[in-house]
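Proteins fold reproducibly. Take a tokenised chain:

. . .
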Amino acid sequence: LYYLTGRHDRAIEMYETAFRSRSVAYGPDEATTLQALTNKSVVLATVGRFEDAERTLQQVIARLTARHGAD
């Protein structure tokens, strides 16, 4: 909702909070945990923070690769 209403800073905070909470509850490499980081990267790119978005997506890719392999 924050993203859709243009409150991007708040959306970024909420996705980071969701990531931390889900990491504790489900583990840092679980799919819904990583979805929070993916969503955060979308908002970061939307506001022009492309390097931060890329860095965040690289974290997601690294975690998925470690869990499932490169293929």
